[in-house]
């Protein structure tokens, strides 16, 4: 049996509420370029953040879409985000809409696959936070390399800070929680050898 961590999130509300919800697993990025292969499985589409996550550094064209990580739109064409880290500094946020399977992270040098699986009926999407040395201010100082794979029901990480326009694909991505129905999300992080 593969090593795994099983997690659960329980929420009990006092009154009916509608809000965005996410969990935020963050994974190590290898030092060598393209040492991590990211596989999202079957998804409906990928959406880029509505503005530049890190102005002057982020590459992805805001408020755009793609069918896969291999061809994410930038101002100068496309970039492949399926192999990380990138050989240049950037910070990116991408939301995978309607994930139909687990997310797999293949650490190619180590020969290990790390998988994240969760109840997609409750949190249908996954936001990818690609922190590729692009934050030059403290406390990151250009040294932070990590990949957040964040199951969610909501418009990116905007929460109640901003509301998408009514016709935006994420406009109605929220959870309705009821006082007489406890919410419970189960999710799992597992590891296995790539050859297995």
3D architecture notes:
- The chain has 196 residues and is mostly beta strands.
- Helices cover 0% and strands 43% of the residues.
- It contains no helices and 17 strands.
- A hairpin with a 2-residue loop joins strand 8 (72-74) and strand 9 (77-79).
- The radius of gyration is 17 Å and the shape is globular.
- The N and C termini lie close together (11 Å).
In brief, what are we looking at here?
The protein is mainly beta and 196 residues long.
Mean pLDDT, all residues: 92
Distance between the termini: 11 Å
What share of the residues lie within helices? under 10%
Proportion of residues in β-strands: 35-45%
Give me the Rg, rounded: 17 Å
Largest sheet: 7 strands, antiparallel
Keywords:
196 residues, 0% helix, seven-stranded antiparallel β-sheet, globular, mainly beta
Annotate the secondary structure layout.
Blueprint (H helix, E strand, L loop, with lengths): L3 E8 L5 E3 L1 E2 L3 E3 L7 E4 L5 E4 L16 E2 L5 E3 L2 E3 L3 E2 L5 E8 L5 E5 L4 E7 L6 E8 L12 E9 L21 E3 L5 E11 L3
Antiparallel strand pairs: 1-17, 2-16, 3-15, 4-15, 5-10, 5-12, 6-7, 6-11, 8-9, 11-14, 12-13, 13-17, 14-15
